[in-house]
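#structure-requests
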Amino acid sequence: MDRPTIFLSNFHPFVTKNTLNSGVLDALASQSKVIILVSKEKEEYFKQIYEKENIIVEGINLDPYIKSGKNKIFIRLSELLLDTNVTRFHQMEACVKDGNWFKYYFFRAFTRTLSHFLLFKKLVHVLDFKIDNPKPFQNIFEHYKPLAVFATDAFGDHDVFLLKNSKSAGIKTIAMVRSWDNTTCRGYLRFVPDKLIVHNEVMKAEMVKYHDIDIDTINLSGVPQFEKYIGLKASPRDEFFNRIGANPNKRMILFTPAGQFFIDSDWQICQILKELYLEEKIPQDVQFVVRLHPFLPVDLLSFEPDENFIIDVPGPAKFNKLEKDKKEGELDTFFFQHIYDSIYHASLVINTISSIIIDTAIFDKPLITINFDGWLKDPPLLRSILKRWRFEENQINWMSIGSTRLAGSKEELAKWINEYLEHPEIDHDKREIFKQKYCWKYDGKSAERIASIVLSN
């Protein structure tokens, strides 16, 4: 009996980490022939790594369709039809950029009214499908005749074209929400698939609340990229410390700055940590590893690291490189091992705005979250941790659990560094609650569940 053919999209670097390298691809390939769809310029790269007997890589250029005027209109409508705090902040950013307050209030009124009018949203869906559906995948469909299409980034522009083209061709559609914050920040879902996969109950509730998805369409999977940790073993401490240039005689505190895309105070927090050490307000047997985001460069130009600060660059983002290209490069299997070692060997983690809070809960490591804007007394609202980022819906959700202490000042930061280093068991119960809530079933079977959902009738 011939294996069914499944199309799998991979148009975002995090999909490489979340799907191709997390066990999902292997689970699908064990039962089907998998066609991985990638951007044309990355076709050879993925062929060299993933292509084998029952896995084929096909590249396609969707840029002309994504950049078309009609697609931009429907992207804009999608943004306007999601009434969340994140949408409001995005609309404020546009106003600050062009100085047009009339446009801001007009679009706010549009969002506050029409985003709650279901018939209007359904009409937009119909028009989106009818008007902006160029069918760029048609030739590939006719060649491979897939049983189903698995779009791994339900809110991604590439995946939207894939899903619409699939429906036109009569092919079953399955889509997955790529990240825990996509439900409240990526606009109103432009295409409703036959099956929708989400990681946990929180995302399920948000897809019903904000995107009007029928609850029977939604399937829970868990988070496969985090379950990859189950099969890993930490590198020996001396080996890891030598690799990053750390002192093996000192404990390690891992700090994850937000990045220049979000705030301007990352370097100030680094300086405050440095001052706390020099002022002997925290233990003297610690060192800080500043782990940069793989795709969001961090502005540390005004910070001078000393022997107690190691700047760790885990991906293509370069130290002090301020370009805001969020999609350069890919995340390979070494990325998993490196972050595993980084958290495993850390005595404490300090977070700003990062999903590392999930990793930290899995490892049951104490976590402090920066909840002040460095030395800035009155930062612009849109660049403020306190005024903006803590009011985004996904931030509100995880803060309510209490699995991380919020440090609202230099003094509070010192307090919680000292308390957590002395008593790392503090808040263990809340970290466990967080893990259960956001990882759903942390049982090593998320990849299998996703494959089963994709392949089932």
